[in-house]
Amino acid sequence: MTTVPTAVSTETVAAPPPVPPAASLSGLSVALIIIAVLELLDGLSVAWGIFGDPEIVVPAISGAASVMHPLLALAALVFAAFGRVRPAIVMLGAVIIVTWLKYMPTVVSSGIDAVGLGAIWSPAQIIAFPLVAVCAIGLAARNRRLLVATALVSLPTLFNIAAIIAIAIGLAMRGT
User: Fold this and answer.
1) How confident is the model at residue 124 (pLDDT cuts 50, 70, 90)?
2) Which of 50, 145, 151, 155 is deepest in the core (most CB within 10 A)?
3) Under a CB-based contact definition with an 8 Å cutoff, are residues 70 and 45 in contact?
4) Per-residue pLDDT tens for 41-86?
5) Is the dihedral of CA 46, 93, 39, 80 positive or negative?
6) HSE-up of 24 (CA within 13 Å, CB side)?
7) Alpha helices in 22-145 (DSSP H)
8) Looking at the predicted structure, is the pLDDT value of residue 90 above 80?
């Protein structure tokens, strides 16, 4: 009995696309958890706006934003805690847009504050941050540059914290 050699296939099978390493996703998740907790605390601290913020011209928008802000931040926190970076980025981007919507009626009726800290904070809050949010949401939706998208949605929160620290330092230096 003779054996006939069988043909061995030499075709190469295309490899699946590379998956981002788990370590980088967990690092992004931790960063997003921190930002989401800060935004959740901020949203809860202004939750009284549900009953109408006296400084806001349109109370319905203020109340809706006061409800949505902590809910979106909580959703971002849950997504980030489960390692779902893309939806967490989208939720934090939505927090930024909701915050922008909260201030728009006042800006339309009174204009942008151009005095003191408002000269820096108002243009950032009204012009730059919504653009940052849209870019971050777009990057997350396309699953591209998640590190950049995480940095973009973190920028407004970190900016606001830096502003609070600057105000506290200024008040401490004046002694009031």
Assistant:
1) confident
2) 155
3) no
4) 988 887 765 665 555 555 677 777 778 889 999 999 999 999 899 9
5) positive
6) 8
7) 22-45, 59-81, 85-110, 118-123, 129-141
8) yes
Calpha distance 125→112 (Å, rounded): 10
H or E stretch covering 171: helix 146-174
Global pTM reads 0.76
Structure tokens at 116: 């003191």
Helix axes 129-141, 146-174, angle to 10 degrees: 150
Query: Tokens representing 79?
Result: 């997504």
Three-state SS at 167: helix
User: What end-to-end distance do the CA atoms of the chain give, in Å?
Assistant: 103
State mean pLDDT over 155-171. Answer: 89
Give the whole-angstrom CA distance, residue 143 versus residue 125: 26
160 contacts 154 by C-beta, under 8 angstroms: no
Query: According to the model, what pLDDT value does residue 3 have?
Result: 64
Would you say the C-alpha torsion 172, 173, 175, 176 has a positive or negative sign? negative
